Amino acid sequence: MVISSTVTHPDEQRQSITCTFASRYMRDPVPKFKLPESSIPKDAAYQIINDELMLDGKPRLNLASFVTTWMEPECDKLIMDSLNKNYVDMDEYPVTTELQNRCVNIIAHLFHAPIGEEETAVGVGTVGSSEAIMLAGLAFKRKWQTKRKAEGKPYDKPNIVTGANVQ
Protein backbone atom coordinates (compact mmCIF):
# COMPACT_ATOMS: atom_id res chain seq x y z
CA MET A 1 0.00 0.00 0.00
CA VAL A 2 1.27 3.44 -0.88
CA ILE A 3 0.89 6.16 1.72
CA SER A 4 0.41 9.50 0.02
CA SER A 5 1.22 12.81 1.59
CA THR A 6 -0.70 16.03 1.13
CA VAL A 7 0.99 18.82 -0.77
CA THR A 8 1.11 21.83 1.52
CA HIS A 9 3.76 24.17 0.10
CA PRO A 10 2.11 27.05 -1.82
CA ASP A 11 4.48 26.67 -4.78
CA GLU A 12 3.57 23.00 -5.16
CA GLN A 13 -0.14 23.75 -4.80
CA ARG A 14 0.04 26.08 -7.81
CA GLN A 15 1.64 23.49 -10.09
CA SER A 16 -0.30 22.50 -13.17
CA ILE A 17 -0.14 19.54 -15.52
CA THR A 18 1.47 20.03 -18.90
CA CYS A 19 -1.22 19.02 -21.36
CA THR A 20 0.69 18.70 -24.61
CA PHE A 21 -1.72 16.38 -26.39
CA ALA A 22 -4.84 17.46 -24.51
CA SER A 23 -4.29 21.12 -25.45
CA ARG A 24 -6.58 20.69 -28.46
CA TYR A 25 -9.45 20.26 -25.98
CA MET A 26 -8.64 23.11 -23.59
CA ARG A 27 -6.75 26.37 -23.18
CA ASP A 28 -6.40 26.76 -19.41
CA PRO A 29 -3.84 24.79 -17.40
CA VAL A 30 -5.12 21.95 -15.22
CA PRO A 31 -4.11 22.10 -11.53
CA LYS A 32 -1.94 19.18 -10.49
CA PHE A 33 -3.18 18.73 -6.91
CA LYS A 34 -6.73 20.13 -7.00
CA LEU A 35 -9.84 19.80 -9.13
CA PRO A 36 -10.11 22.57 -11.73
CA GLU A 37 -12.66 25.33 -11.15
CA SER A 38 -14.69 24.20 -14.15
CA SER A 39 -15.14 20.83 -15.78
CA ILE A 40 -13.00 19.64 -18.66
CA PRO A 41 -14.06 17.47 -21.59
CA LYS A 42 -13.90 13.74 -20.93
CA ASP A 43 -11.57 13.31 -23.92
CA ALA A 44 -9.17 15.79 -22.36
CA ALA A 45 -9.30 14.05 -18.97
CA TYR A 46 -8.54 10.73 -20.64
CA GLN A 47 -5.70 12.21 -22.69
CA ILE A 48 -4.09 13.89 -19.65
CA ILE A 49 -4.15 10.72 -17.55
CA ASN A 50 -3.10 8.48 -20.43
CA ASP A 51 -0.16 10.78 -21.24
CA GLU A 52 1.08 10.57 -17.64
CA LEU A 53 0.65 6.80 -17.50
CA MET A 54 2.83 6.44 -20.58
CA LEU A 55 5.76 7.46 -18.36
CA ASP A 56 5.37 4.22 -16.36
CA GLY A 57 7.44 1.21 -17.31
CA LYS A 58 6.21 -1.12 -20.01
CA PRO A 59 4.69 -4.29 -18.51
CA ARG A 60 6.12 -6.47 -21.30
CA LEU A 61 9.62 -5.42 -20.27
CA ASN A 62 9.00 -6.08 -16.57
CA LEU A 63 10.71 -9.38 -15.86
CA ALA A 64 11.10 -8.70 -12.14
CA SER A 65 7.56 -9.14 -10.87
CA PHE A 66 4.38 -11.05 -11.55
CA VAL A 67 2.44 -9.13 -14.16
CA THR A 68 0.28 -10.42 -16.94
CA THR A 69 1.55 -8.97 -20.19
CA TRP A 70 -0.71 -10.78 -22.64
CA MET A 71 -3.87 -12.85 -22.57
CA GLU A 72 -6.22 -14.30 -25.10
CA PRO A 73 -8.78 -11.67 -26.21
CA GLU A 74 -11.57 -13.73 -24.61
CA CYS A 75 -9.85 -13.39 -21.21
CA ASP A 76 -9.56 -9.63 -21.68
CA LYS A 77 -13.26 -9.52 -22.55
CA LEU A 78 -14.21 -11.52 -19.43
CA ILE A 79 -12.23 -9.11 -17.28
CA MET A 80 -13.85 -6.08 -18.89
CA ASP A 81 -17.30 -7.65 -18.48
CA SER A 82 -16.61 -8.24 -14.77
CA LEU A 83 -15.07 -4.90 -13.76
CA ASN A 84 -18.36 -3.63 -12.36
CA LYS A 85 -18.71 -6.54 -9.92
CA ASN A 86 -17.69 -6.18 -6.29
CA TYR A 87 -15.61 -9.31 -5.82
CA VAL A 88 -16.17 -9.50 -2.05
CA ASP A 89 -19.98 -9.19 -2.22
CA MET A 90 -20.65 -12.92 -2.35
CA ASP A 91 -24.39 -12.58 -1.69
CA GLU A 92 -24.88 -10.31 -4.68
CA TYR A 93 -22.62 -12.31 -7.01
CA PRO A 94 -23.08 -15.99 -6.07
CA VAL A 95 -22.02 -17.32 -9.48
CA THR A 96 -18.69 -15.49 -9.19
CA THR A 97 -18.22 -17.14 -5.80
CA GLU A 98 -19.11 -20.54 -7.25
CA LEU A 99 -16.58 -20.08 -10.05
CA GLN A 100 -13.95 -19.15 -7.45
CA ASN A 101 -14.71 -22.32 -5.47
CA ARG A 102 -14.49 -24.44 -8.60
CA CYS A 103 -11.12 -22.86 -9.47
CA VAL A 104 -9.83 -23.65 -5.96
CA ASN A 105 -10.81 -27.30 -6.44
CA ILE A 106 -9.35 -27.47 -9.95
CA ILE A 107 -6.01 -26.13 -8.67
CA ALA A 108 -6.10 -28.49 -5.66
CA HIS A 109 -6.56 -31.49 -7.95
CA LEU A 110 -3.93 -30.18 -10.35
CA PHE A 111 -1.39 -30.20 -7.51
CA HIS A 112 -2.64 -33.52 -6.05
CA ALA A 113 -3.91 -32.05 -2.76
CA PRO A 114 -4.78 -34.80 -0.24
CA ILE A 115 -8.58 -34.42 -0.31
CA GLY A 116 -11.12 -37.21 -0.24
CA GLU A 117 -13.76 -37.94 -2.88
CA GLU A 118 -16.54 -36.30 -0.85
CA GLU A 119 -14.41 -33.34 0.26
CA THR A 120 -13.81 -29.99 -1.35
CA ALA A 121 -10.52 -28.16 -1.24
CA VAL A 122 -10.03 -25.21 1.07
CA GLY A 123 -8.74 -22.08 -0.58
CA VAL A 124 -9.46 -18.49 -1.34
CA GLY A 125 -9.56 -16.33 -4.42
CA THR A 126 -7.53 -13.14 -4.42
CA VAL A 127 -7.31 -10.10 -6.63
CA GLY A 128 -3.53 -9.78 -6.64
CA SER A 129 -0.37 -11.83 -6.22
CA SER A 130 0.77 -9.93 -3.10
CA GLU A 131 -2.52 -10.69 -1.38
CA ALA A 132 -2.24 -14.31 -2.47
CA ILE A 133 1.26 -14.84 -1.09
CA MET A 134 0.36 -13.18 2.23
CA LEU A 135 -2.66 -15.46 2.65
CA ALA A 136 -0.58 -18.49 1.66
CA GLY A 137 2.03 -17.50 4.25
CA LEU A 138 -0.64 -17.21 6.95
CA ALA A 139 -2.08 -20.61 5.99
CA PHE A 140 1.38 -22.16 6.12
CA LYS A 141 2.00 -20.58 9.54
CA ARG A 142 -1.27 -22.04 10.89
CA LYS A 143 -0.40 -25.47 9.54
CA TRP A 144 3.07 -25.24 11.11
CA GLN A 145 1.60 -24.12 14.47
CA THR A 146 -0.89 -27.01 14.49
CA LYS A 147 1.88 -29.50 13.76
CA ARG A 148 4.16 -28.04 16.46
CA LYS A 149 1.35 -28.09 19.05
CA ALA A 150 0.66 -31.75 18.28
CA GLU A 151 4.37 -32.52 18.75
CA GLY A 152 4.44 -30.63 22.07
CA LYS A 153 6.99 -28.17 20.70
CA PRO A 154 7.00 -24.35 20.92
CA TYR A 155 4.83 -22.77 18.26
CA ASP A 156 5.03 -19.06 19.04
CA LYS A 157 8.21 -18.12 17.14
CA PRO A 158 8.25 -19.29 13.52
CA ASN A 159 11.49 -18.91 11.60
CA ILE A 160 10.66 -17.65 8.14
CA VAL A 161 13.58 -17.69 5.72
CA THR A 162 13.40 -15.59 2.56
CA GLY A 163 15.78 -14.76 -0.24
CA ALA A 164 17.61 -11.45 -0.42
CA ASN A 165 15.39 -10.51 -3.35
CA VAL A 166 12.13 -10.54 -1.37
CA GLN A 167 10.23 -7.28 -1.75
Characterise the protein shown here:
This protein has five helices and two strands, in the order H-E-E-H-H-H-H. By secondary structure, it is mainly alpha-helical. Among the domains are: 10-56, MYOD Basic-Helix-Loop-Helix Domain, subunit B (Irregular), CATH 4.10.280; 126-160. Strands 1-2 form a two-stranded antiparallel ribbon. The longest helix is centred in the last third of the chain and has 22 residues, at 129-150. It is an enzyme of class 4 (lyase). Its cofactor is pyridoxal 5'-phosphate. Its EC number is 4.1.1.15. Pfam families: Pyridoxal_deC.
How are the SSEs ordered, and which strands pair?
Elements: H1 10-13, E1 16-17, E2 30-31, H2 42-53, H3 73-82, H4 94-110, H5 129-150
Unreliable sequence segments? none
Could you tell me the number of beta strands?
A: 2
Strand content: under 5%
Q: Please report the number of helical segments.
A: 5
Task: Measure the end-to-end span.
Answer: 13 Å
Mean pLDDT: 84
Order of helices and strands: HEEHHHH
Radius of gyration, in Å, reads 24 Å
At the first level of CATH, the class of the domain at 10-56 is Few Secondary Structures
Structural class: mainly alpha
Helix content: 25-40%
Which architecture of the domain at 10-56 does the CATH hierarchy give at level 2? Irregular
Q: What fold name stands as the CATH topology of the domain at 10-56?
A: MYOD Basic-Helix-Loop-Helix Domain, subunit B
How would you sum up the major sheet? 2 strands, antiparallel
Backbone shape: elongated
Strand order across the largest sheet: 1-2
